[in-house]
Amino acid sequence: MDRTNRIVVEIIESELGMGQDVVRTETFSDIHGAVQFCLRFNRDNDQESTPEWYCYAHVEGFAGMIRTRAEGERLVEEWKVRAKRALSAGKGHGQNGTPFPGKGTAWR
Predict the structure, then answer these.
(1) Which of 34, 39, 48, 65 has the greatest number of CB atoms lying within 10 Å of its CB?
(2) For 13-32, what is each residue's pLDDT tens digit?
(3) For residues 13 and 51, what is the distance between their CA atoms, to the nearest angstrom?
(4) What is the pTM of this model?
(5) Rounded Cα–Cα distance for residues 94 and 86 (Å)
(6) How far apart are CA 104 and CA 7, in angstroms?
(7) Domain residue extents for the chain
(8) Exposed, middle or buried: residue 64 (CB in 10 Å: 0-12, 13-18, 19+)?
(9) CB-based contacts of 83, cutoff 8 Å, min separation 6
């Protein structure tokens, strides 16, 4: 797979009193596939209160869980803005193959 098109989705396990941990990653060649995966994975996370244990999927470099189509569309638009900004600034591609530098760097 071409590194310039790699989008990483992290599967996060969250447990009360234990915190959160990345338990798995999935790699996608486009942002739309990554968002669709998150929507499918997170579709059962619909409780009114946070359970003591749960897993969710999110696109690396973006905060939060995508649960609705509107949230997914907003993420895609933000992705496009960040990519355009990063590439026009000559920043090139980051360590995770995206136009972003990867974990530990604020792009928001």
Answers:
(1) 34
(2) 999 999 999 999 999 999 99
(3) 12
(4) 0.74
(5) 10
(6) 16
(7) 3-88
(8) exposed
(9) 98, 99
